[in-house]
């Protein structure tokens, strides 16, 4: 772990912004697919930040939605610890968090956990939620506790996201990332 942190801090300092982007993948994303997405994100940043992946143990199968939901929730303590460490080692103003789909569930719960643990505020600069698979009303209820932990929140919604439609059907409630 010490070598990882030394290298990450050094890599972040060598970017034009001094920042790290923590990427948390969504449902139906195995490790290899997640790494390809992160590599593409790294290329697109063109030296402005260093990308770090938090890969929770998704089964990577479309048929395993319920298992993936349990797996991302199981990962919350580890994700909260990583977010806290990134803020402490890289600097809170230099940590951006990008979460996709079901990964947003883990991120929201990790931020809630940090708030309950009395984390120093804010813990990250920006939270970006890409088609978040999270109950809309639950997010609204949790938002007052999450807002002080982030410098800002950006939400991207989609009207054509098949996993969000499936999640809506399974839960019976609208998802935060659904457009409309």
Task: Describe this protein's structure.
Strand 1, helix 2 and strand 2 form a beta-alpha-beta unit. By secondary structure, the chain is α/β, with parallel strands linked by helices. The longest helix is centred in the N-terminal third of the chain and has 15 residues. The chain contains seven helices and five strands. The protein has a five-stranded parallel β-sheet with strand order 2-1-3-4-5, sandwiched between helices.
Number of strands: 5
Average residue pLDDT: 94
Question: Number of helical runs?
Answer: 7
User: Could you tell me how far the N terminus lies from the C terminus, measured between alpha carbons in angstroms?
Assistant: 44 Å
Chart the SSEs and their pairings.
Layout: H1 2-13, E1 19-24, H2 31-45, E2 49-54, H3 65-74, H4 76-90, E3 95-100, H5 103-116, E4 124-130, H6 136-146, E5 150-156, H7 162-171
Parallel strand pairs: 1-2, 1-3, 3-4, 4-5
Relevant terms:
globular, alpha/beta, 48% helix, 5 strands, 180 residues, 7 helices, five-stranded parallel β-sheet, single chain
């Amino acid at each position: 772990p010490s070598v990882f942190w030394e290298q990450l801090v050094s890599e972040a300092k060598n970017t034009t912004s001094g920042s790290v982007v923590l990427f948390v993948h969504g449902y139906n994303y195995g490790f290899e697919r997640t790494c390809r997405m992160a590599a593409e994100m790294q290329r697109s940043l063109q030296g402005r930040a260093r990308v770090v992946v938090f890969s929770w143990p998704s089964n990577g199968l479309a048929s395993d939605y319920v298992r993936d939901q349990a797996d991302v929730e199981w990962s919350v303590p580890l994700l909260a610890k990583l977010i806290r460490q990134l803020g402490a080692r890289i600097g809170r103003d230099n940590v951006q968090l990008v979460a996709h789909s079901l990964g947003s569930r883990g991120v929201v719960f990790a931020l809630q956990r940090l708030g309950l643990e009395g984390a120093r505020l804010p813990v990250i600069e920006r939270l970006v939620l890409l088609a978040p698979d999270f109950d809309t009303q639950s997010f609204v209820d949790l938002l007052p506790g999450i807002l002080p932990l982030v410098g800002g929140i950006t939400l991207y919604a989609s009207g054509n996201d098949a996993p969000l439609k499936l999640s809506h059907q399974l839960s019976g409630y609208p998802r935060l990332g659904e457009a409309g």
